[in-house]
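Might you be able to consider the sequence and fold that I enclose below?
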Amino acid sequence: MTTPGWYPDPFDAAALQYYDGQQWTGQRRPSPRADQPQGYTLVARCYPPAAQPWAATPAEYGLAGFPVQDDEQPTGWLPVVPRRHRGRTPLIIGLVVVLVAALLGAGWFFLPRKDAPPFTFGGKEIAKPEQVLTQAESAVMAVVASRHGAKNADTRCYFAQPAEPPKGTKKSDIDGALRCGPVLFVDGDTAKPYLSIPVSSAGAKDGKVTLTVAGTPSPKDPDTLPSTISLRRPDSRTPPSAAGGLSAPEPQAAGHDLLIAADLGKTVLGDAPPNAVIASRIRGVKLTKLGKIDRYGTGDDARSAPKGQQLIAFQTGDAPGQAGSGVSPGNLSVSVDKAPGRPLPDPDAGQSVVVAVPTSATSVELVLLDEGLDQRLSLLDGKPLATNVAVLTRKHLTGSLSVNLKVRLDLTNGNASATATETITASRARLEWWSGTTHASSGAKAFLVVDLRLTTIDSAELFGVDTTWLTLAPTGGTPIKARNLASGADKIFNVFEVPASFTTGTITISGSSASGGITATVANPQTFAVSIPAN
C-alpha cells in the first residue's frame, strides 16, 4: 500500500495533491519546484490528461515511497548522482519486470484495474473490496488446512454478481456470498469445487458500505457455480475451468493400533469363510464379513491405514454355544501376535469393527473367553485355531434313534439261577463337549451321549443300562468302552468319548455285571447303529 503524503498532482504538474493511502483527496498546494535545492534533479513523470475521470495511485506512477513532507526537503526530488554504471539499467529493469510478474502470479496479489467499475452491495459502493476478498481467502485457507483439503495456485475468492440483477438493484450489486475455489475435500466432486462465504453489511460511511466476512463457509461443502452469476474481482482475474485440475485428496492416516466400530463408507467387505465360528458352553460368535481394507469412513471422517500398519475390518453375528446362543461384546477381544486382547467395541447396526495392526503381524485373532474356555479365530484368513473345541462349531450335533430291544439276562447268585427279559429303549444321540461339570479330554474330542433306558417286565420304573454292557465301534475306528459320569455310586450317566468329527458307529450290548451279589449276563447280545449328520 502507498504511504500517505503529498505527491505530484497527476492533473496539474505545477501542484501537489494529498494521497491518503487509498485515494486522492483533492487537497492541493503549489509544487515546490521553484525551491529545488542545488545538487538535486526533478524526476520526470508522465501524467494522464486531466479530463480523465479517474486518477492512478502514486504507486502506478512509480512515486511510492517518495511523498513530499511538510517539514523536510521534498523527497520527490532526487540527488544528482553521476551515472557510472549505465550498463546495469537493462538488468534492473529486467529484475523489476520479473518481480512484478511474480507478484501478479501469486494468488493473493491485487492490482486493481483503473477502468474497473465499482462493486456495490445494497446499492452502495463497497469500501476496500480487495480487503474483503483477502479476509475471505484467509478463512478458506484455514478451512482447507483443518479439513485436509486440496487447493492450488488458482484458488481465490470472487464477488458474485447476478447475471440478471433483480428489479430495483444495481447491475454492480453483488449477492450475499463470495465464491471461493477451486477447493476439494476427501470424497469431493470435481464438479462442485466452490465454497460460499457469507458477507453482510457492517455499516456505511461516506457513501461506502463496509462488509463483514463470515469465518466459515455456508454450507460447509463446496458446490457447483450457478449459471445465474458471474464471478469478478478488482484485479479482473477469472476462475479456472472446472476444478482447475484439482483431485479430491486421499483420507488422512488413522491412529496407530486403532480399534473402533465404524462405517466403512465406499469400502465393501467380502463374506467370511463359512467355518469362521467360535463357541463356548452358552455363547458363540461367527464372522459374517471379513477383509483387509485401504480406508474406512466418508468425507472428513475417512481414514486410511497408519504408516507401517494395515487395516482389517470384520462383522460378527450370533452363533450357538453348546447350551445357548448369543455373545456379549464383553466376552470378545482382539489379540495381535499373542499379546493380551483388547476389548471389542460394540458396533451399531451396519457398522464394522476396524483394527489397525502392523503389516509384519503374524497373528491377529478374535478371542472368545467364556467360563475359562479360550477360543480363537484368525482375522487374517478367517480360520478357527486348531486348538479350539471343534465339536462346539459343528453344524449337526444330534441324531435320531429308534431303539427298542428285548434283552434276556441270566441271573445267578452262586446258589441259584434265573432268567429275566428286559426292554432297552433310546430315541436320541447327541455330541457335546461338557457333560455336567466334566468335559472331553481335548478340543479334538467330544462326548457321545445315548439316552438308553432299561425297563423290567414287572415294573414300569426306568433304569440306566449297566456301563459294562456297552461298547461303541466308530465306523473305521477302534472300539470304545462306555464311561459312567454320574456323581453318585447308585446312578448311571453313560458317555462314549469320540473324535469330534464322529458321524456313524455301532453300539453293542453284551457282557456281564455284578451288583448286590447277583451276576447278570446278557444271553442274547444286541447291536444298533448310531448316526449324526456330518457338517
